[in-house]
UniProtKB/TrEMBL annotation:
Keywords: ATP-binding, Ligase, Magnesium, Metal-binding, Nucleotide-binding. Its cofactor is Mg(2+). Signal peptide: none annotated. It comes from the Bacteria. The keyword Transmembrane helix does not apply. Its EC number is 6.3.3.2. Pfam families: 5-FTHF_cyc-lig. The keyword Nucleotide-binding applies. This is 5-formyltetrahydrofolate cyclo-ligase. Gene3D superfamilies: NagB/RpiA/CoA transferase-like. It catalyses: (6S)-5-formyl-5,6,7,8-tetrahydrofolate + ATP = (6R)-5,10-methenyltetrahydrofolate + ADP + phosphate. It comes from Streptomyces galilaeus. GO terms for molecular function: 5-formyltetrahydrofolate cyclo-ligase activity.
Length: 204
């Protein structure tokens, strides 16, 4: 396997297809059970228990379900920020106040996403978060995350770094998506922990 950026990127594309294929085989019951277990595991995280502001996202399709977790965080009194995709793939943010505060937005040829309907707070709002919950397709033993490939969260992580913000970075995945190794590029940043339906794993 080449360690050049091009080699890593083509390897990532191949891995993304494999992980998405496995996810797409999950039944409605599988998804519902995984979402309930995932919320239970995540709510045990001390970082989330302490967090005043959590930047999160609304799962779509066969992603590990996040709505139960979002509602539980809200019930705890946390401020929950959700992303809104901008035309350049960067993310703006808005507050989540319950399922009624979401709208399904179709982004051209990309996927339809549930986004907050309220005021936009600007891309820098994420720098206030104590915890950032990240989507992904896999994470490896070093905490390197394989994202969907749009680059939106690479921008978020770069923005946090520039601002000197140091929130806990937590990726939400299925158990089978914690793997030995994912290819990395120079801009990739490791996460602090992964939550799956069966538990939490931390990375140093």
């Amino acid at each position: 396997m080449s360690h050049t950026e091009g080699g890593a990127e083509s390897h990532k594309r191949m891995l993304r297809r494999e992980f998405i294929t496995v996810r797409n085989r999950l039944t409605t019951d599988d998804l519902r059970e995984a979402a309930t277990s995932l919320a239970g595991q995540a709510l045990r995280l001390p970082e989330l228990a302490r967090a005043r502001t959590v930047a999160a996202y609304v799962s779509v399709g066969s992603e590990p379900g996040t709505l139960a977790l979002l509602d539980a965080l809200l019930a705890r009194g946390a401020r929950v920020l959700l992303p809104a995709l901008l035309p350049d793939n960067d993310l703006d943010w808005g507050a989540y106040t319950g399922e009624g505060s979401l709208a399904l937005v179709q982004h051209g040829g990309k996927m339809a996403l549930f986004e907050p309907t309220g005021d936009r707070l600007g891309p820098d709002a994420v720098t206030d978060a104590d915890v950032v919950l990240l989507p992904g397709l896999a994470v490896d033993a070093r905490g390197m995350r394989l994202g969907r490939g749009g680059g939106s969260y690479d921008r978020v992580l770069a923005r946090l770094e520039r601002a000197g913000a140091d929130p806990s970075l937590v990726v939400l995945l299925y158990d089978s998506e914690v793997v030995a190794h994912v290819p990395e590029e120079p801009h990739d940043r490791p996460v602090h922990a992964v939550v799956t339906p069966s538990g939490v794993r931390r990375f140093t």
